[in-house]
Amino acid sequence: MKTNRQSRPSLLMLGLILVIVGLSGCATTTKHDPRDPWEGWNRGVQKFNDTLDDYVMKPISQGYQWITPSFVDRGITNFFSNVDDIGVIANDLLQFKLLQTGQDTGRFLVNTILGLGGFIDVASKLDLPKHNEDTDQTLGAWGIPSGPYLVLPFIGPSTPRGLIGLAGDTAANPINWISPAAIPYGVGTLKTVDMRADLLSATKIVDEASVDRYEFIRNAYFQQRNYLIHDGNPPLDDTLEEEMDLELEGLSSANGIAENTEQQANPQP
């Protein structure tokens, strides 16, 4: 009988912990995100973009991936990455990252000259890693707030600051300076298809792993941007920190109640 008397408080403690964690989880999922005041609009636009992707972009990208040899696909991705390094270098300077400016300039020159215009990533083999800097990150590093979450037709997740950053990145891309305009449009279409093909497996993971796909993408967008702006060392979000403190307080309270219950059930002689 002693074993049964000891198991009841343990089950009670487990039950209390599960209830507290469950309630905190429910509160998190139903709570309106203050970063997303335009959620109604955003959900509608995401539904439009998802439909367009299902019926247009995904089939085209799958066909592109099927007919394109892997080394050609890799070369096209490398080429566009090399072109993007021009904007990376400019944003390095705007953020006063002088050492990184030198590294990215060297990377661009090596891949352009030795890598046949960037189709071969020679620089990575020479310990010149790829960095990711854009205008949105520069504005964030300057202290300009992102503004509310905004889903744009054909573009996807963004913010007002991200929209300005996109305009800056587009202007910094030398391919967009070429005339006639059909050339930039054609090259841009190829880049979009190539990027979408590279994300086919990631899309499948998102679809299978997320309960609310919209919420998953929104949170992932903010986390990724925050990660990039702080160079992989983002500060702990205040809201997340408060939720963690509440959960820890709840678990401590549950342990205290369980210990009191166990003491009453098993009084010391």
UniProtKB/TrEMBL annotation:
Keyword Signal appears in the UniProt entry: yes
Keyword rRNA-binding set for record: no
Biased composition (Polar residues): 252-269
Pfam families in the record: MlaA (PF04333)
PROSITE patterns tied to this protein: PROKAR_LIPOPROTEIN
Top-level taxon: Bacteria
Keywords tagged on the record: Lipoprotein, Signal
UniProt similarity note: Belongs to the MlaA family.
Name of the protein in question: Phospholipid-binding lipoprotein MlaA
